[in-house]
Amino acid sequence: MAERFYLTTAISYPNGRPHIGHAYEFIATDALARFKRLDGYDVFFLTGTDEHGIKMLQSAREQGISPAELARRNSAEFEAMAALLGGTNDDFIRTSEDRHVAASQAIWTKMAAAGDVYKDAYSGWYSVRDEAYYGEDETELREDGKRYGPQGSPVEWVAEESYFFKLSEFQDRLLALYEDNPDFIGPAERRNEVMSFVRSGLRDLSISRTTFDWGIPVPGDEKHVMYVWVDALTNYLTATGFPEEGERSAYWPADLHVIGKDIVRFHTVYWPAFLMSAGLPVPRRVYAHGFLFNRGEKMSKSVGNVIDPAALVDVYGLDRLRYFLLREVPFGQDGNYSHEAIVNRTNSELANDLGNLAQRSLSMVGKHCGAKVPTPGAFIEADTAILTAANDLLPKVRTMIDRQELHGVLAAIIAVVSEANRYFAGQEPWALRKSDPARMETVLFVTAEFLRRVAILLQPFVPESAGKLLDILGVGPDARTFNELTPDVRLAPGADLPAPQPIFPRFVDAED
Ligand code: ME8
Questions:
Q1: Does any domain span residue 252?
Q2: Atom number, ligand 1, closest to the C-alpha of residue 15
Q3: pLDDT in tens, 180-197
Q4: Is ligand 1 within 6 A of the CB of residue 202?
Q5: To test ligand 1's pocket by mutation, which of 55, 226, 291, 331 has the most ligand atoms within 8 angstroms of CB?
Q6: Does the ipTM exceed 0.95?
Q7: Where are the coiled-coil regions (predicted)?
């Protein structure tokens, strides 16, 4: 039976419409999910919306609607974004769903039964934008007389009765988790930050509120609603059917949570501590990507300057956007995007390197090989070298995928495509047409077979264009997994090919 692989995005706050940061995280996770599926895994890919908390309540008040209505409207936008981005998520969870209320109350009950929950009075600093409690030492008083948290968002003083989680008692178990599982947190700088945060000592965590009711009621004490992060993190369990045993239970523990760098503490400190308390296995890996900036300008719903992902798809097309986002910015680091960067990157690599190679070779196949897969003669060293370079890609990129080095995967593939362009130019098949037509067929066969291998590998990243390239290579829908990349699988000489069509056209500015 296929090995399972469960991966998730963070669930977004639907207090506004989706922005490019959400699209970025979703596209990256979708590419990982597609890669794993093609590589033979039984994948479960989850995304969704995080609908409770004060941030949602405040946004709803500002708009004069109920938080449930705000969540419903914007959650639909997030679901539409997932579809627009070619998302292959297997489920879309909303934390206002009944199944999630049941799961959150079940994990709470388990933590309470373990003796890790107690009632006390809370007073301290809270950031609504981050939905986070901060110690006074993590905040700063600025010249405007207001206090701000470590991520630059304003904090307010909160004092009320609250349930607490005994986080302070999990310090040793958490440090042991990080030490015994060096891959639990990636990239390395995030792991180091978390370890020094936990080493410096943990305070118990306030996990309920009484001053509003937009949340999941605490079992047995309905005056309290759960702190939004207790319920939010539990979404990953909810989708596996928790607390019931069912078909999806076997996906837990999750193999990978893909999140942004601003929410690492919640996923690598609070979440494993909640799970340990509840006696449940912890996820295998949490990977934090960086932030995307519009030419250095931070975008978020709370700050404004939001760029609509749908508009970007409209202008550039989905595959250009997917390719650019995953190729341009090393995953894990912050990065910029701009119109020029998108156009330059996709024109030079997709249109010039890959598109031209496909266009030039396959139009020759169409004209001079009777629109059939060419019949090769004996290979010379250059032929074997370029096919070997393509064969060597899978083991190489597989390792990078397991470290979420998406940019590295695309860099490795495009480097081999450049090599193939040099091969094609060096062999001059257009000159061979008269001087040595048999050799021309060999060069065209090698190039077509090379393109088949590269197109199969590119499917997770540019699904539509890679699919089209496979169509014109005559590769059927059931011959597109990584099983078809073993050295013995090849295009069948003499097989009929459909008419070639351009796969990666250049992007031309409307005003040009
Ligand atoms: O944090 N660039 O929701 P959210 C890259 N509900 N990534 C970005 C980004 C940007 N400019 N802006 C946001 C939440 N993100 C919680 C998560 S999970 C149990 C609960 C990322 O809507 C951000 O880092 O503020 C996070 O991973 C995701 O988008 C959702 O952010």
A1: yes
A2: 22
A3: 999 999 999 999 999 999
A4: no
A5: 291
A6: yes
A7: none
3-class secondary-structure state, position 160: strand
Q: Answer whether 267's CB lies under 8 Å from 286's CB.
A: yes
**Mean pLDDT within 120-141:** 94
- Residue 76 neighbours by CB distance under 10 Å: 13
**What's the pLDDT tens digit per position in 347-400?**
999 999 999 999 999 999 999 999 999 999 999 999 999 999 999 999 999 999
Q: How far is the CA of 10 from the centre of ligand 1 (A)?
A: 6
CB 195 within 8 A of CB 208: no
Residues 452 and 397 in one domain: yes
Atom number of ligand 1 nearest to Cα 49? 6
* Residue ranges making up the domain that contains 76: 4-110+228-289
The overall pTM is greater than 0.90: yes
- Number of structural domains found in the chain: 3
| Residue among 262, 264, 328, 329 whose CB has most ligand 1 atoms within 8 A, to mutate | 262
Q: Same structural domain for residues 184 and 80?
A: no
For residue 219, say if its preceding peptide bond is cis, omega within 30 degrees of 0: no
Q: What is the 3-state secondary structure (H, E, C) of 266-292?
A: HHHHHHHHHHHHHCCCCCCCEEEECCE
Other CB atoms within a 10 A radius of the CB of residue 110 amount to 18
Atom 10 of ligand 1, nearest CA residue:
21
Q: Kindly state the tokens that stand for 236.
A: 């990953």
Does the CB atom of residue 21 touch ligand 1 within 6 A? yes
80 band by pLDDT with thresholds 50, 70 and 90: very high
Phi and psi at 315, nearest 5°, equal -75, -50
Q: Is 207 in the pocket of ligand 1 (CB under 6 A)?
A: no
Q: Identify whether residues 391 and 248 lie together within a single domain.
A: no
Looking up tokens 């295009």, which residue turns up? 491
Q: Is residue 511 part of a domain?
A: no
